[in-house]
Amino acid sequence: AQKITQTQPGMFVQEKEAVTLDCTYDTSDPSYGLFWYKQPSSGEMIFLIYQGSYDQQNATEGRYSLNFQKARKSANLVISASQLGDSAMYFCAIGAGGTSYGKLTFGQGTILTVHP
Amino acid sequence: GAVVSQHPSWVICKSGTSVKIECRSLDFQATTMFWYRQFPKQSLMLMATSNEGSKATYEQGVEKDKFLINHASLTLSTLTVTSAHPEDSSFYICSASGDSYNEQFFGPGTRLTVL
Known about the structure:
The complex is a heterodimer of chains A (116) and B (115).
Chain A: E1 3-5, E2 10-14, E3 19-21, E4 24-26, E5 32-39, E6 46-52, E7 60-61, E8 64-69, E9 74-79, E10 88-96, E11 104-106, E12 110-115
Parallel strand pairs in A: 2-12
Antiparallel strand pairs in A: 1-4, 3-9, 5-6, 5-10, 7-8, 8-9, 10-11, 10-12
Chain B: E1 4-7, E2 10-13, E3 19-25, E4 32-38, E5 44-51, E6 57-58, E7 67-73, E8 76-81, E9 90-97, E10 104-106, E11 110-114
Parallel strand pairs in B: 2-11
Antiparallel strand pairs in B: 1-3, 3-8, 4-5, 4-9, 5-6, 7-8, 9-10, 9-11
């Protein structure tokens, strides 16, 4: 079984500053993927970034980067140059390999509020 | 990214009725589709995994006779909430996956309110 822990129920950041959202995970599967999704108030799940367990480099997608520390089982999301539109709920998720490709386990989420 | 649609986007029904929610992958063939449920201010909980042409696999604690899932084609999966009750009121989200497990695309969700 997989588990994701997000310990920050809410985070506040000033516009244009960087913010780190924490995520730790637990799995016994040697092959897995880590995902971050953004969920605005409309409810849609917006894919942000993916990191594979065997990827040597940290994933980056525009203003989003994933700080992957495998030994510590952490996969923190870093958002650089925050924008007002970044205010939303953010979920970290893990998907294990094998026959259940794509089956995701989500953390409890972090509500990010960006102040002007 | 690929597009997944859900219909309806919201539905209000009376207790005891059944509600069908459709999930469609519009521009790719979805080998697998997933159904999640999300209560207000909570996380997404996986309900079931469906593969085209086979029976769905339900997560522990999910009643398969209450939440009927049909994955009739590579682009369509349906979730039917049978004999809905107020406690079934929730946000239901589907996702679709292609051949690579790092690709999973979510639908916009369906908000179900049972009176």
